[in-house]
Amino acid sequence: MSHVSSHNLVEPDCSAQAPAAVIFHRLGPYHLARLRAAAKRIPIVAIELVGKDTTYAWEVVRGPQGFPRVTLFEAENHSGDTFVLETALRNTLERESPACVVLPGWSPPGALIALAWASSHSVPIVMMSESQDRDRRRNPLGENIKRRVLSLCSSALVGGSSHAAYLAKLGLPRERAFCGYDVVDNEHFRSGAERARADGTLRARLGLPGRFFLASCRFVAAKNLGRLLEAYSRYRKSSSDPWGLVLLGDGPLRPDVEGGFRRLGLETHVLAPGFIQYDTLPAYYALAGAFIVPSVMEPWGLVVNEAMAAGLPVLVSERCGSAPDLVEEGRNGFTFDPYCVEQPASLMLKVSAMAEGQRQAMGRASQEIISRWSLDLFAQNLEKAIQAALRAPRRSVSVLDRLLLWALIHR
To answer: Are residues 248 and 175 in the same domain?
Structure first.
């Protein structure tokens, strides 16, 4: 049986206004930081479907966060049963009676269940989205289904410009899409990096090379780590004084990645320390020379925000959703074609050959650019999205809509 637990850790003064229910699969440190900022402006209740999952090995954050928090399941074992999840989430929404529902996308069953509940109760819906048109080859049938699902939503909070453009293509009025969904706690990474750089013994304690490129991601196919290793191997052959490479993260393709080290003769040049917890991450950014993201599909890439906040130049795949908004070519970094191994190899050579002062200037530019993509931006634009949803006319829900949502939830 499911175990629905409610952790109302702090009850902020929400006056008489009903809260907005903000739903996430799991509340990791990134989500909590955003929601803390939002709760200073608007009444919210955060609903997480699971308290712990296998996708990210984040430590569970307990204690007061500044807003009511409801956890449906402590672990994933019951949330995978759609009927159990539907009962738990619907009951929670009935009990909380939110003024607005904020969804984590349009594909996960939990998001669709909440969308179906809100539609049937005439509750306005905000879609949080980081999908962009070029993520993958689009199927016309799938796009038509998305259009119909999106038509039930009144507004959206999106990652950036490419995500707003995609929702406009699917029919959401552009003035009802607000940027700022994908932000991090910039101060956590800025101040953490500053402290780490001041610690003269930290590099040795962490076993890090004197100079290195840093990458951080799950070890899955979309992250394109095989080509990154090929590019790094080419870079080493062309540089007279090559840097090391540090890969943070873990995942199902770790054996393949480690096999790539051996195949390319990189065992002594690449360090892969595994998944690094949130509080320790700034140290790795601080001691790196530059950051690289090689993904062939990356809806946004919060690691780019982190690296920029820590003051690093960034080399970012042009397929990364954050690239158009965060990378100013030649000022704080460079973009590249992730399918072309030669491009990232030549950029690694270019950055490592720069004078230290030039790299530091690029790092300062990164911090200036990312300061505009802050927790406050998330809070302000979530508030605007909710206000827009409350004002917007709501489309009546047809029998076809109900059947479509049922089929998508139970597919």
So the answer is: no
Do 130 and 64 lie in a common domain?
yes
Pairing of strands 270-274, 20-24: unpaired
Please, what is the end-to-end C-alpha distance for the chain in angstroms?
22
Distances (CA, A) of 99 to 6, 124, 215, 391, 394: 19, 7, 41, 12, 14
Is 150 found in the same domain as 224? no
Same domain, 56 and 203: no
Distances (CA, A) of 373 to 279, 307, 322, 377, 381: 20, 13, 11, 6, 11
Structural domain that includes position 21:
5-183+374-409
Phi, psi torsion values for 70, nearest 5 degrees: -115, 125
Distance from C-alpha of 326 to C-alpha of 226, rounded to nearest angstrom: 25
Tally of domains in the chain? 2
Distance CA(317)–CA(297), nearest Å, equals 9
Q: 178-225: per-residue pLDDT in tens?
A: 999 999 999 999 999 999 999 999 999 999 999 999 999 999 999 999
Q: Report d(CA 50, CA 329) in Å as an integer.
A: 40
Please name every residue paired with 103 in a beta bridge, in sequence order, or none if there are none: 127
Q: What pLDDT does residue 80 have? A: 63
| 113's tokens | 């269940």
Find out whether 326 and 304 touch, Cβ atoms under 8 Å: yes
Beta strands in 57-137 (DSSP E): 69-73, 100-104, 125-129
Query: Are 145 and 239 within one domain?
Result: no
Do 345 and 199 lie in one domain? The reply is yes
Q: Could you tell me if 108 and 228 lie in one domain? A: no
Q: Judge whether 5 and 74 are in contact, CB under 8 Å.
A: yes
* Separation of alpha carbons 371 and 294, rounded Å: 24
Cβ atoms < 10 Å from Cβ of 79? 23
Neighbours of 381 (CB within 10 A): 20
| pTM of this structure | 0.92
